[in-house]
Amino acid sequence: MSTVVRIPTPLRRVTNGDDKASVDGENLSEIINDLESQYPGIKERLCDENEELRHFVNIYINGEDVRFLNGLQTNVSEGDEISIVPAVAGGT
User: Kind and range of the H or E element at 74?
Assistant: First the structure.
């Protein structure tokens, strides 16, 4: 099963400029592992040393934040839209 992941601009230096990646996996954890096999180093930008999603990284499946679903164990189906969105903070 192949699914497309949208890659945000800050991570495109890891994906050689690719803004989308075609990946395989039945859940988000498997999707991230497939991303890592294609683009070494991307997983450490998404997950911490405990294999949990980093606090400043948001991942949405069909517009739903995975933190409100089953986290990295959220099931993925062919045709689902997966987006990685880095948190934005700052201002004066």
Answer: none
